[in-house]
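Worked example 4.2. Below are the chains of a multi-component assembly; read each line carefully before continuing.
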Amino acid sequence: MTEESPEIYAPQANLPAMPADVPLLRIEGVSKSFGNFRAVDRLSLDIAAGEFFALLGPSGCGKTTLLRMLAGFETADGGRILLGGRDIAPVLPHERPVNMMFQNYALFPHLDVRDNIAFGLKRAGLPRADIDSRVAEMVALVKLEGMEKRKPDQLSGGQKQRVALARSLARRPKILLLDEPLAALDRKLRESTQLELMELQRRLGMTFIVVTHDQEEAMTMANRIGVMNGGRLEQVASPRDLYEAPQSRWVAEFVGDVNLFDGEVASREHSRITVSTSGGAALAVAEPRNVSVGTAVSVAIRPEKVKLSRRGPGSDAVSSQLINRLEGEVTDVSYLGGLTVYKVKLDSGAVVRSSIANTVRLDRDTYSVGQRVVAWFTPDDCVVLQR
Amino acid sequence: MSARRIFAQPARYAAIAPYLWMVLFFLLPFGFVLKISLSQTAIAQPPYVPLFDLTEGWEAVKAAFAQLSLDNFRLLVSDNLYISSYLRSLFVAVTSTLILLVIGYPIAYGMARLPRRWQPVAMMLVIVPFWTSFLIRIYAWINILQHDGLLNKILLALHLVSTPVVWLSTDSAMYIGIVYSYLPFMILPLYATLARMDASLLEAASDLGSSPRQAFWLVTFPLSLPGVGAGALLCFIPIVGEFVIPDLLAGSGSMMIGQTLWLEFFTNKDWPVASAAAIALLVLLVPPLLLYDRLQRRTLGAAG
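Applying the procedure described above to all two chains together yields the following structure tokens:
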């Protein structure tokens, strides 16, 4: 059935045959201002067909504006948006081969589930039989069988979300735009829906662009994440690289939790540098880039990579490696179930956070407030960020 | 004691206020009118019999009750004058309401799409005419519509007509007056519905392939129907009983029920028949009033 019903966005009609190296979507130096406020600032980005791309950022960073420009609800002040190599600026929203799932779902309150899903198909002038089969297919896809005759106000939040998803998928867009698709769901439902969205995207092979302020959501679902701040892309990377190799202090702080030590490069030897921190410590850091001595930098280390011990690592295997040891006193212990977060006030005055997985049920080897400990981490676990 | 307790009691009694109001200012007078409608006309002060005289005891009141009759209502259905006035009232009200809808909808729609900060200004402009007396505004229309009035001058100047058109004392003049007077009552509920509508619904419609025109007819208009209903009934109900505008602007050929009422009451001094006509009018308006109430409830329910 899927193969038989006609395509609304026929590949030939909307996307001319294109060379393999042209990405599905190319955003070239796009800007958008509202009055004096620059929502999107000369932003460029390529997104390939079949990607699950997340635009991540705090509110007001311009991610929704960018999404709305892709849908055609906002017009770019400058730059170009190319879909399959063709500029879509002159294409009106209702003629673009992209569909959007709205944050508040924007379901038509006067139409039932079936008519909501069929809305876009009817506008495309599909034959009745095709509409019926496509609606049935969509209803099954989002597991809403038996709900076809309900009005939106008779649905739960999760069901509304599914109708909105089915409605935006029904036209089989080249790109599905999702604006905070899970923001209105409660936590448990959000987690299961994340997995369903990923599964759906893989199965349909469709390109998804999701806007979210929730980094966990972005990390879970997307293959690639663009972190936005102040209308610009701070970094575009895989979830892993974003977390393990942030390119800026801002990204390091926005994505996950991080300890930062400000200082300057004191010496350099092969691919290792020594940073003398403002607290007076000398940190050994692995740094393959050529950073000249005297450069002001920040050393970033994730809390789960900071270990604690009573005396400091001894003489065994790890001793062959240069290890950063910082002595201090535990000031706060937060037990979070899967892990425990310790705050350690270093003798230099800085506070470092260490999160330790609770791998044993009856762990007597914990630290208590007031206890003196050594916080230690390896040079390889540190990231050097330019200031 | 908690403060909430202290305030809870008056709050409970406050609910009685509207009922008290209804009894004092609607049910009681309605009872009087009903009583008069069942009485007979008489040359007296007040001009009808019987009167209840409670001083003469229970028997006298019983005798008075026995004299009440439905004769006046029989007259209403047997005399063409009343039936034709009712029909004319209904016709005028339906026609005016349709014209009001056609004119009011685009205005309300335009207002709802203005930038946010201009909307209160537009609303002021709609309400501003209420600052002058209704009668003065109708007299102003007489001025505009008369033989050498503003309207004819403009039409002549634009060469749209070669001789002055007779406007006054025609149905056209009456419709102009009614539409002009009731337009705010049509615009405001429509505007309220349209302004409250979620803009993302139109974006969704557009996203799903609707042209702006399709989006209007498939989304905006169906969702504004409660406002259409409220506005239409808010105009229709009082227009049915309208008396001043047809009296001042329309010809003397046929009368609306309000005019007939006035005639019976003041010229013929037949209070009982006038009361019967008033009661019949009220009964006639009960179904649309109930409909209005239901629409209001549904709108409130949808908003809540």
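Take a moment to check your reading of the output against the notes. Chain A has two domains: 10-97+173-249, 257-386. Chain A has nine helices and 20 strands.
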